[in-house]
Design goal:
Largest sheet: 6 strands, antiparallel, barrel
Shape: elongated
CATH architecture of the largest domain: Beta Barrel
CATH class of the largest domain: Mainly Beta
CATH topology of the largest domain: Elongation Factor Tu (Ef-tu), domain 3
Number of strands: 22
Radius of gyration: 47 Å
Number of helices: 4
């Protein structure tokens, strides 16, 4: 081969190689994506919220009236029987008076003495007036019988006598009231016995209404209690229920009879099975940890698992309640991470021949990580999970290893 021909062939080869490099640099590369397989299986739609256990039968033992409570010797966890004495109450005790209060009380006693003396004088005067009125009435009756007095004069004397009697009764009642006021004023200053609370029998004993355990001791030390003041809480923790506050939009899917599972309660065994027994008809507003106002509804669930599985669970314990609002077997499922919106419709990228093909799908129930496919996909088809924002229909893709 001539040198000129060899040189020309070399330059042509180099040009082809450069063009190939340029073409390879601009040739579109396959996007590496995560791929999942559409498959059939069990699907559960779960509403999940934190709940709290509570004894089915709880009782708050409170003071029915004001009084002096003796010291409570019970501790939380103590077993009690129905009818067992729990709290002993005595009549209210007088409190020690400070100097100013004592002076005021002494002044009220002096005022009560003066009032009593005044009432007695008024009663004495009313008694004398009544006696004079009775004598005048009797005299007028005698004169009327002899014809020396008119009936009008007699009636006036009788009326005045009745009025005097009424005044006397009122004055005597005033004496009784003044004596009662004096007694009340003196009672404040009257010294009280300094015995210990156990020296006298209690006026009233509060007993346990059921067999159970002491759950809370609100008040232990002896002292004055007000009407309605809580002292103890007792309950039977062999029967527990769970109260869970759920969002109002989720409460529409939770109904009596809905199965529930109690998890993360601290036990090592399987989840505790429960069933919803009541959904409150009234919601309430609660401020979340982020400061957002939420409408919530209280849901009560009854534990149906054998007690041997949750015998260590007590009242007031935290549990994670998972309500199964929908469940199905042999459901065609697609990962929710593969779904994206196009307008009002759902779509996915299906991997076909190394390319991402956009396809619209119709969904049914949606769980946390999977959704039910009603139409648009077939079992064992592969879809792109979390597709990149720049992935287009027909783009070349390569499954991530």
């Amino acid at each position: 081969m001539k040198p000129e021909t060899r040189k020309r062939a070399l330059w042509i080869g180099m040009g082809v190689f450069v063009l190939a490099l340029i073409a390879f640099g601009f040739w579109p590369r396959a996007t590496e994506v995560q791929v999942a397989t559409v498959e059939s299986g069990r699907l559960e739609v779960i509403v999940e919220e934190e709940g709290q256990t509570q004894a089915v039968e709880e009782h708050v033992i409170s003071a029915p009236t004001a009084g002096f409570m003796r010291r409570v010797g019970l501790e939380p966890g103590d077993l009690v029987e129905a009818g067992q004495p729990l709290v002993e109450l005595e009549p209210p005790r007088a409190q020690d008076l400070d100097p100013r209060t004592r002076e005021e009380a002494q002044a009220r006693v002096a005022s009560a003495y003066a009032g009593l003396a005044q009432a007695r004088e008024q009663a004495r005067a009313a008694r004398a007036a009544a006696e004079r009125a009775r004598e005048e009435r009797d005299r007028q009756e005698r004169l009327f019988e002899r014809g020396s007095a008119t009936r009008q004069t007699l009636e006036r004397a009788r009326t005045e006598a009745e009025q005097a009697e009424a005044n006397l009764e009122g004055a005597e009642a005033g004496v009784d009231a003044a004596e009662a006021q004096l007694e009340a004023a003196e009672a404040v200053l009257r010294p009280q016995p300094n015995g210990l609370p156990g020296d006298a029998p209690p006026e009233r004993t509060l007993v346990a209404p059921i067999d159970g355990q002491v759950l809370v001791v609100h008040r232990r030390s002896a002292g004055h209690v007000s009407p309605g003041e809580p002292i103890l809480e007792i309950g039977d923790i062999s029967e527990l229920e769970v109260w869970t506050d759920v969002l109002s939009r989720d409460a529409l899917r939770v109904r009596p009879g809905t199965p529930a599972r109690l998890e993360q309660w601290g036990g090592d065994g399987p989840p505790i099975e429960a069933v919803v027994t009541r959904v409150s008809p009234r919601g309430f507003t609660e401020v979340s940890a982020l400061g957002v106002e939420e409408q919530r509804v209280r849901v009560r669930s009854e534990i149906v698992s054998p007690r041997s599985l949750w015998e260590d669970l007590g009242a007031g314990y935290r549990v994670l309640t998972r309500f199964v609002v929908w469940e199905g077997d042999d459901v065609l499922r697609v990962p929710t991470g593969a779904l994206f919106r196009i307008g009002e419709e759902w779509a996915v990228f299906v991997v076909e021949g190394g390319r991402a093909v956009q396809r619209f799908v119709t969904l049914g129930q949606r769980a946390g990580l999977a959704a039910q496919v009603v139409s648009g996909l077939e079992e064992n088809e592969r879809v792109v999970v979390h597709p990149p924002a720049d992935l287009g229909d027909g783009a070349r893709v390569r499954p991530r290893q």
